[in-house]
Amino acid sequence: MSQSLLTRVQARVDLHTSRKVRGLITGRGTSLFTGHGEDFDDLKAYQPGDRISDIDWKATARSGEPLIRRFTEQRIRHIAIIADTSRSMSATAADGTDKLEAMLLAAGLVCFAARQHADQVGLVAGTADAPETLPMRSSDAHLELLLRTVQRATTAQAGEGDDRWLLERAHRWIRRPSLLLFITDEARPSPDLEADMRLLARRHDLLVLRIRDADPLQPDRLTHSVEDSDADHDLLDYTRRDPAVRRAVQRYREAREQQVTAMLDGLHIAHALTDGADSVVDDMIRLLRAPRRPHGRR
Amino acid sequence: MVMVLWWVTLIILGVGLIAALIALRFRRAHAKRPTIRVANSAYVDSLPAVKRSRRIALMLAATSVLLAATLVLTSALLSGRLATERVEQPSTQSRDIVLCLDVSGSMSAVDADLLMTFNEIVQRFDGERVGLTVFNSRAVTVFPLTHDYLMSRRQLEAGAQLIGGQSSTTAEGDAKATENDRDALLEQLRATSQSTGAGSSLIGDGLVSCSQQFDRSDESRSRFIIFATDNQLAGTPLYQLPEAMEAAKRRGATVYTLAPDSVIGGAELEELRTETERTGGRMWTTGSAQSVDTIVAEIQKSQAAKTGGAKRSYYTDHPAPFWLASLLAMVGVVAVGWRQR
Fold first, then answer.
1. Residues contacting residue A87 through CB under 8 Å, at least 6 positions apart
2. Residue A218 to chain B, least CA–CA distance (Å)
3. Chain B: nearest CA to A2, how far in angstroms?
4. With 0-12 CB in 10 A as exposed, 13-18 as middle and 19+ as buried, what is A95?
5. Of the residues A72, A96, A117, the one at which a domain ends
6. How many whole angstroms separate alpha carbon A165 and alpha carbon A173?
7. Cβ atoms within 10 A of the Cβ of A226, count?
8. How far apart are CA A242 and CA A239, in angstroms?
């Protein structure tokens, strides 16, 4: 690959974002990461979780609804990407693209935004057998290396997904309070990892991006066989077309989705579920701009 | 069971086998199609709906294979014309048998038994013509050569009842002799003893009369006389026994003689035996138990020899079960295919 991954991500971001959003990213550079700095950014409606001290009382009085001032975060931020690079991330996403591509775009978007402000970005990835960690640095070469490391690690031959190991490693590795982006798929983080997630969210500002998996039945694509990256099952065409099976699979996925969502919502962790590379940029921007509690304070 | 067009069956089975092999190849190619890799779908295998669906799919596949095999097999058998072969001698239709019974006084004790024997012989044949002539001083044709077995059995039955006062245990239904039959027969029996002045029990004349029953002299037919007499002559016949035998032989008839087993008349019986054997026939005394079997066997054997054993095969197809099976299999294949969609 001759072109740098970072450049490709930038091209994709430009392609995907509306002018308004692009303005937010490129105009003043750091709008994606709002925080508590000196430079006034803009006003926005108060939402539960925002600091009372940030409320702009004059503006509130003028408009009749509570408004808070947003400031551009000025100090150098520390960002870490926790990438699930297990073999299941090399499979197909719900929209038919590769899950890896969506993961690279999401990570690239963060890197790209961080570059504008010289934020430092680190990486926790890999599996227990082949851990991949990169310290927090801000150089372009480092960001490029980070993306390439994610790309290289995520293959069909990679280890089995182990989110407990990954979360524990992130907890041990990232000492400084940071902005964490955990990129994984729809089955993770598993609901029984609530304790690990809480531990991580208490210290850091944690975002979770989950990439939806492709339908395991693929009833419209019977010219292709379906293979799971972990399980060795051979579904018969008849089964793949069976409406009863389709309903059962749908019910199972919905139940799983509900459990994971309930766990994340219960911990007040911002999270998004994306269908794949085609929609990941929009979903990422929505996730980054979502109101969230300041990290480190509960 | 024979296969008339067995090679068609082989061709269809061969084509079916080739089709199965091609289908298998396609299946293998189908298994080698490109794959879509998905993740986190291990749960699919444990879903009850999937297990049920898999079971149904396998069952349907097995059923359709079985039905297709049945369809090929039955249509192959059907096309091969599975049939039973029946070998027949066409000449069985051209046998004539005249039963010739001496009803003179000396025979009265055994006539009923002889009629029963005749009845038994008649029942053994199928397709032959049978006629009955009784004689004493004159010969009377009770019934001429005919295919009407029902009538002939009734007449023989009536005769046995009339003479011996006994009823055949074999007669049943339509074959039961009626009052009319007996009355008619009584008339005929009386007629045999109306004197012509030449005495009674004219054996030679009786035999000649019997020989004259054979018609269609221009056709090549097998002719038999089953001649029941004791050869006790009383009077002056027009024909002596040797002359009568000669006349029978000239008409192409073989004479089989049944003589009552008696202590008297040894010389007459000996003459009878000699004369009978000159026509190519045999003589039995009624005492010998196997006479009926032997007569029937002899007649059938001599017949085969005469016609040179030219046999013809008749095939009777049995399509019904295979037709039904293939129809059901076809319906089944369509139904399973529809279900498999």
1. A154, A155, A156, A157, A158, A159, A160, A161, A229, A230, B39
2. 9
3. 27
4. middle
5. A72
6. 12
7. 22
8. 5
B48 cis-preceded (ω within 30 degrees of 0): no
Query: CA–CA separation, B256 vs B282, rounded Å?
Result: 5
Same domain, A156 and A174: yes
Tell whether A202 and A113 lie within a shared domain. Answer: yes
Chain A and chain B share a number of CB contacts under 8 A equal to 106
Residue among A137, A200, A113 nearest A163 (CA): A200
Range of the domain at A37: 18-72
Question: pTM of the prediction?
Answer: 0.58
- The answer to whether B67 and B337 are in contact (CB under 8 A) is no
Euclidean distance between CA atoms B316 and B336, whole angstroms: 35
The bridge status of strand A205-211 relative to strand A179-185 is parallel
The one-digit pLDDT tens for each residue of chain B (341 residues) are: 777 788 888 999 999 999 999 988 888 877 778 888 888 888 888 889 988 998 998 998 899 889 989 999 988 888 888 888 877 665 555 678 888 888 877 777 778 778 888 888 888 777 778 888 888 888 888 888 888 888 888 888 888 887 776 555 555 555 566 777 777 778 777 777 766 655 677 888 888 888 888 887 777 778 888 888 888 877 778 888 888 888 888 888 888 888 877 666 678 888 888 888 888 888 887 766 567 777 777 777 765 555 555 567 788 888 888 889 989 999 998 998 888 76
A57, amino acid identity: W
ipTM score over 0.95, yes or no: no
Pairing of strands B199-200, B82-88: unpaired
Identify the H or E element spanning B141: strand B139-146
Chain A residues whose beta carbon lies within 8 Å of the beta carbon of residue B34: 223-225
**B46 contact A CB<8A:** no
Quote the CA–CA distance of A180 and A178 in Å, as a whole number: 6
Domains of chain B: 90-307 (3.40.50.410)
B337 contacts in A (CB within 8 Å)? none
Q: Are A31 and A21 in contact (CB under 8 A)?
A: no
